[in-house]
Amino acid sequence: MSRAVGAGEQVRALVGLQLALERRTGEALLVVAPFGAVALLLLPMAVGTDVPLLRQVGPGFYWLVVLLFGVMLTVRHSAEDGPGPRALLAQCGVDPVARALARVVADAVLLLAFQLLLAPVAVALYDPRIPGWPALLLVLPLVAVGLAALGALAGAVSAGVPGRAVLGPLLVVPLAVPLLLGATQVIEAAKYARAPWPWLVLMGLAGLLALLATVLTARALEEAG
């Protein structure tokens, strides 16, 4: 019981540390979010003022931007990714599983904030007419957790590998296809009054499998690194 409590305290402390570093540096939201907003702005400039077309393709483009820039956010180098900080955390008795879970939680919070920051921009630019908003609200945390888990797994796999900045996105993007597909299809289901639950289940399973893989391989990848 005490071991479980200790692991929970480690996760909470590491999440607080990572979010405090983000507040101080603004590496994720103050750098990635503006570029995401600019990317959303490029499509209306390319297709002109064709409002029906913008309403049709806008939601899918929003999720594509979330995926691509979210990958950049999750695979970025954090302050504890180097061999020195990782060795220090190991000497302090920090469980690799707790460190992996803390990264997932912290990145999920940042990804959720990133999505919420981009959503008003997408609404203003594309003026989507989508009913069934409660189902769409479930998509935001599912995408955040799924991408965060994939990013943590890719970061652990590519730790210490030359060209890690390139390898990380190459690992995450193909595995994130179910999240992108599910998010866009939930929107289509809402448009045509179809049940969104199969796509929500797909996204939930994708995120759960990524989270399980991250947890189950954390110790082995830490030792290998």
Folded structure, characterized:
The protein has one domain (2-224). α6 runs antiparallel to α7. The longest helix has 31 residues, at 96-126. The chain has helices at 2-25, 29-47, 51-74, 83-91, 96-126, 133-157, 164-175, 177-191, 197-224. With 225 residues, it is mainly α. Helices cover 83% and strands 0% of the residues. It comes from Cellulomonas fimi. GO terms for molecular function: heme transmembrane transporter activity. It is found in: Membrane.
What's the helix count?
9
Could you say which overall geometry the principal axes of the C-alpha atoms support? globular
Alpha-carbon Rg, integer: 18 Å
Q: Structural class, judged by helices and strands?
A: mainly alpha
Quick description:
This protein has 225 residues and is mainly alpha-helical. It has one domain.
Question: Helices, strands, pairings?
Answer:
Elements: H1 2-25, H2 29-47, H3 51-74, H4 83-91, H5 96-126, H6 133-157, H7 164-175, H8 177-191, H9 197-224
Membrane topology: Multi-pass membrane protein
InterPro entries: Cyt_c_biogenesis_CcmB
Keywords: Membrane, Transmembrane, Transmembrane helix
What key phrases describe this protein's structure?
225 residues; mainly alpha; 0% strand; globular; disordered N terminus
